[in-house]
Design goal:
Helix 2 packs parallel to helix 3. The chain has helices at 2-8, 42-57, 77-95, 110-113, 136-143, 154-159, 172-180; strands at residues 14-21, 24-31, 62-68, 100-109, 122-125, 131-132, 165-166. Helix content is 38%, strand content 23%. It is globular and about 50 Å long.
């Protein structure tokens, strides 16, 4: 962790806080793949849960920009518990009638994709992003089937209804603004 903190200047793989998107207040969390492949450990899960809870209390939308290699396995069960913890906070956010927008970047995989990354009211992905739970090799070995071309790309998942829209990064602010409004 210390080497990644020195390398990136971050304390962990996510930055979170409140802000505004074109004047609309939001709770925001942004994952940074440069910090240990943006794996989700207990600190990442806690920070994401806290921003969701703060946004719920302030009646603000939540936006999470995801990138991840998955759960931080060396933390063991503490890492895996973050999947349920973040999902529970999002369920309470939804019960309050507040929007949640997920932005999937390249790559967004494993435990992060199996929890808060896939729970958005609207799920946006950047073009050509790799998105999925397990890698293609693992899926092929498990299912004993050849995978279709483009499997686990944003475009494939949009075509099959698992992602709502594919948006280039340069257009993200205007699309998110329209969604919030």
């Amino acid at each position: 962790l210390k080497s990644y903190q020195e390398k990136t200047g971050l304390k962990d793989a996510v930055l979170s806080g409140t802000g505004a998107v074109n004047g609309h207040p939001v709770g925001l969390a942004v994952m940074d793949f440069n910090f240990l492949a943006a794996t989700m450990g207990s600190v990442v899960g806690e920070k994401i849960t806290r921003i969701i809870e703060a946004a719920t209390a302030k009646k603000m939308p939540v936006i999470i920009v995801c990138a991840s290699g998955g759960a931080r396995m060396y933390e063991g069960m503490l890492s895996l518990m973050q999947m349920a913890k973040t999902s529970g906070a999002l369920a309470r956010h939804a019960e309050a009638g507040l929007p949640y927008i997920t932005v999937l970047t390249n790559p967004t995989t494993a435990g992060v994709m199996a929890s808060y990354a896939s729970l958005g009211d609207v799920i946006i992905a950047e073009p050509k992003s790799m998105i999925g739970f397990a890698g293609p090799r693992v899926i092929k070995e498990t299912t004993h089937q050849d995978l279709p071309p483009g499997f686990q790309t944003a475009e494939f998942l949009e075509e099959h209804g698992l992602i709502d829209i594919v948006v280039p990064r340069g257009d993200m602010r205007s699309v998110i603004t329209r969604l919030i409004e």
